[in-house]
Amino acid sequence: MNRYSKILNKTKREIVLLKAKPCKWGKCIFCDYINDNEVDEDYIDEVNLEVLKNVTGEFQVLEVIDSASVFELTDKTMAAIKKVVDEKNIKRLFFEAHWIYRHRLDEIRDYFGVPITFKTGVETFDNDFRENYLKKGASFTNWQEVKKYFDSPCIMVGIKGQTKESIARDMEIIKNFDHATVNIFEENSTDVKRDDELVKWFYENYRYLEDDPKVDILFNITDFGVG
Ligand code: SF4
Predict the structure, then answer these.
(1) Which of 31, 38, 183, 185 to mutate to test ligand 1, by most ligand atoms within 8 A of the CB atom?
(2) What CATH number does domain 4-218 carry, 3.30.450.20, 3.40.1190.20, 3.40.50.2000, 3.20.20.70?
(3) Model pTM?
């Protein structure tokens, strides 16, 4: 598994995929990346401190992802990230957090003292599909609620059961955010299926997002170079 990479288009940044304690939510039916979660904190730190040694600070922007929320990183790993931020002159961070942590984001902002772009897994603003099928556990009812807390929704495209209408609506909604990430769903070890017809339709109609500086679009889950 590759845990360090550089994103060289749009917001240039280094990115690390760290190990975390088990995702506090852990119920999304399409997710098998929680298999990377770990209970042995010493092992988590051993892996993470090694990965963080790669960070050079060359773009002064660092994204930290961890197959859970930033709140599931250990104290020692958090301290190591902070050290990297200070020593490598990092001026902006990207982190991810689940909706359940929306009231605690300032803890992270205060801890690091640099601007943070908070991503959150929205998957879709279609509340019924997100909550009743995907079991996302993100109980907002509209994008305005999400924007109150988070900077950047992560949207999933191409899951069987999604509709063109709901995807088109999601693509309109993300224009209201300063940043968004669009992931094309790839089948994994879960039972959730991909709708190739829908993905083809999306390619044909939304390929222009590749040139949108505010949108990171991942046609493959490893397009950020980690995973
Ligand atoms: S919140 Fe994220 S890491 Fe946790 S189960 Fe859902 S998709 Fe997986």
Answers:
(1) 31
(2) 3.20.20.70
(3) 0.95
